[in-house]
Specification:
4 helices
């Protein structure tokens, strides 16, 4: 497994070579996924894909950090719910309404 560069090196990369930093993030993420069990790899790849979509929505590094923090908080809330009230995860709260077609009045 490749070693994570020091904070100072990562900071310099972020400032001077953001594409290199992104490539490092991608390669290290892929390496971690590859080292996980075969059963977990699809879930980890899906999570990585979701993270990549969140990052793509960001307008700048600070915005990306805020978006990622919001995602993490959402995941932590879901995890807490799973621990404290597992039944709530399978409850459906959506209300299904019948679709009604609008009636057309004939022209006179």
């Amino acid at each position: 497994m490749q070693a994570l560069p020091s904070f100072d090196e990562l900071k310099a990369m972020a400032e001077n070579a953001p594409h290199e930093l992104e490539a490092l993030r991608q390669s290290m993420s892929e390496e971690i996924i590859e080292q996980s069990s075969q059963a977990m790899q699809p879930r980890l790849r899906a999570q990585m894909n979701h993270i990549n979509h969140v990052i793509a929505r960001g307008k700048n590094p600070n915005h990306i950090n805020i978006l990622l923090m919001a995602e993490l908080q959402q995941q932590l809330k879901r995890f807490a719910l799973a621990l404290n009230d597992p039944q709530a995860l399978t409850e459906h709260t959506a209300e299904v309404k019948a679709f009604t077609r609008p009636t057309h009045q004939s022209e006179s």
